[in-house]
Amino acid sequence: MNFEPVIGLEVHAQLLTHSKMFCGCSADYAGAAPNTHVCPVCLGMPGSLPVINKTAVEYTILTALAFHCEIPEFAKFDRKNYHYPDLMKGYQISQYDLPLSRNGYILINDAGQQKNIRIRRVHLEEDTAKLFHVDGTSLIDVNRSGVPLMEIVSEPDMHSVEEARLYSLKLRQILRYLGVSSGDMEKGAMRFEANISLRPQGTTQLSATRVEIKNLNSLRAMMHATEYEIKRQSRILQAGGIVEQETMGWDEARGVTYTQRSKEEAHDYRYFPEPDLPRLEISRVWVSALRALLPELPDDKRERLVRDYGLSAYDADVITAEKQVADYYDRAVEAGKERGVDPKAIANWVTGELFRLMNDSSAEITQVKIAPAQIPALVALINKGTITTTIAKQVFEEMFRTGRDPEAVVKEKGLAVISDTGALAAIADRVIGENPKPVKDYLAGKEATLKFLVGQMMKATKGQANPTLAAELLTQKLLALKD
């Protein structure tokens, strides 16, 4: 029997707030000395009282709106009770039955096929402290404890590792467009938990048991762990066995999942309303104000680039992958309107030479010295015939290195197109004399050989010859030889 995987993901994203979720400690703890961003609240000291971070609530609602979620009129925080060394109070302040949002979705595109992945809820909680295991000793750093953590829970709508990958990337892209989370997995700002079960191929019924893999700290770990778990469960079912419902970890070094404990249900956490925090009233005015803050999201931006600028779907995907790149491109197009520069030409330079140079130098778009307006300025020089495309690439490299305007680079280095008929005629004579075989072939009727001879003129002038004039001069001189 063939089996189909059923995958749901819980994604935890740290929010880019200045302070922690329930206290005034700085949430910017990366690189700080251990246990320096702490206070009685995030240390879980008796008698300390939490205060809700309004910005974290707004970021969560904003994200939920981007995911087309319903925003209820009331929400509350709950105590999720479990004992682990990284949980200072012995409970986590989270949300259970009245979260900040429900019932949303995002679209993914898998090999040209759009698929709707439902989102069960987007809610808010506090992060835990961090444990370090060194030489048989466990150390704890409380700096992370209390940092606002947004949890995005999908429905089990994914049926392959690739769909889980696309969903995760799309979700991260939207968070970065909103500016609510860095999505930086290397710094633990985005983490995954995967719920996986198998069902007979062609059925729609969900399995009664599922395995949850905890604390997957990278996209790569999520994909490898999910792939391994699908194979593990498939082997059990093919052998006639039963998959146990349990919580598992992922051993990156060995590339295997391992049992941590039996899978918890909601009642195991003994949820009850957080007595130290009031119920949240989410007015429709507040929701409307937050909705008005939504930026142009990736799908809408991609559609606009294809519709308004005539870009291919591929180029639009590449440009909109990162918001900062998309904003850079939009500014370049806006600057190009005055010069009559085609947005597609600008896209070619951004996705071609700019990305190549960025990749070679490991630079981000924020580090690029070329101003957006300088790209259409360069294209305008090509369009006017001031420089050739070949020369433009040399100019672009100098712009990338120095940030100078293309006009200044062309003038200083003497890179303008050579359109002097006398100078080019002399070069044409030399090229004809140095290439008897191609000349003979041309005179014999192989007119395609002319392209080779034009190329030799371009080479002789280091790409600066006016290619149209070069071709005209060569043709005249070769026809004269034929007569």
Q: Can you walk through the features of this model?
A:
By secondary structure, the chain is of the alpha+beta class. The chain folds into three domains: 3-291, no CATH class; 310-404, no CATH class; 421-482, Arc Repressor Mutant, subunit A. The chain is 40% helix and 19% strand. The protein is built from 15 helices and 15 strands. It has helices at 54-66, 161-178, 219-238, 284-291, 298-309, 313-320, 323-336, 343-361, 374-383, 389-402, 406-413, 421-434, 436-443, 449-460, 467-482; strands spanning 3-14, 74-75, 78-81, 91-94, 104-110, 113-126, 130-134, 137-141, 148-154, 190-200, 211-216, 246-251, 256-262, 272-273, 280-281. The strands form four sheets. The protein has an eight-stranded mixed beta sheet. Strands 4-3-14 form a three-stranded antiparallel beta sheet, with no helix packed on it. Helix 3 links the parallel strand 11 (211-216) and strand 12 (246-251). Helix 2 packs antiparallel against helix 3 (219-238), helix 5 (298-309) crosses helix 6 and helix 7 (323-336) crosses helix 8 (343-361). The model has no long low-confidence stretch (mean pLDDT 91).
